[in-house]
């Protein structure tokens, strides 16, 4: 489908979804965003659903302003994927050992490494800017400086919720490694600090929703947020890169005879801010649950822990600010999923996948998400499919 245009106060709301299928709470959030004086465009992806601060699956383009709550607390959350030389024929019948080895190498949930990972010992990890990155920690908000040791130990860890590590097969039988994570606790604390600062600023007192408090250009608060935001986005990218390096090491050891090779890594944020230019204007584009899909750019759009995922190439549709969905998108809240489904339902919906099937992940059951095929069909003018993947192992925190 192409987009549907819904009227908004300052700008029209371009929706790559049927407005009738979007819950009222999310629609109201979108209307609220469209009232902001600084907004220059609002695009809505087919995985749209209600979120904290701003709607998940929205692309908010503003001039000289940025809304920290719209970015969200998992700054830089995103995906990485790598195609390997392994095929389905190389896999053992029982995948439980491989899942255990992944969980041993990469801490999940609230876990962290006992000591910070030394990237110098990781095969193929780009270490050139690593020291400079950590030296810049001295320049971030004083309120989170005491978290440095924890932040260092959490680089290369998964977290919980909808984050995952997967072993996947594409339709030709090739094995892919895939993972989803962000800036861990340090990103959350930076976000919460800056959201609190923004909400107290005088220019934000008359807003329709206090979660839409913004920083504006040429102010010390904006400069401080941009500094910390871009640092946290880099942290998230390093976090995924180190996890992927650890993941590759597990695969090398477990498949020594196969002498595994790996194609270049595909990596894409889907909770972040980028400086981009549209219609002659320099804009700050916030993608909250959306990936960049510029012409020819690779992206990753996952389903849920029991369905397929897609490797895509962007088509460069400027009406969407060169964006596409970040996944299937939830169709019910975590609490609603826990009330409605049982561990038996989870076992049934994840049959054939080596994964957790206990009450701790029932809120991630596939039925809590929109059908990924429908989401993909609604954005045919935003991306083209390069590969369809199906997981055989899914690790969750």
Summarize the structure.
This protein is of the alpha+beta class and 397 residues long. The chain is built from 10 helices and 18 strands.
Shape: globular
Low-pLDDT sequence parts: none
> What is the multimeric organization of the chains shown?
single chain
Instruction: Give the averaged pLDDT, no decimals.
Output: 95
Give the DSSP E fraction (strand runs of 2 or more residues): 25-35%
Cα distance spanning the termini: 36 Å
Structural class: alpha+beta
Helix content: 25-40%
Radius of gyration, Cα only, in angstroms?
20 Å
Give the H and E element order.
EEHEEEHEHHHEEHEHEEEEEEEHHEHE
Figure out the total of helices: 10
Total E-strand runs? 18
Q: Note the main sheet.
A: 8 strands, mixed
